[in-house]
Amino acid sequence: MTLDKLLVIGAALFCCGLYTILTRRNAVAVLMGVELVLNAANINFVAFSHYVSRMIGGQIFAVFVIVLAAAEAAVALAIFLRMFATTGTVEVDMADHLKG
Amino acid sequence: MTGPADVIFYVLAAVTVGSAILVATLPNIIYAAVALLFTFGGVAGLYVLLSADFLAATQVLVYVGGILVLIMFAVFLSNRISSVKLSNPVHFRLPAAALCLTLFGVLAYMAVSPAFVPKQEITYQPTTARIGELLMTRYLLPFEVASVLLLAALIGAALLSRPDRPDIPRPDMEEPK
Question: Distance between CA B58 and CA A43 in Å, rounded?
Answer without folding.
Answer: 14
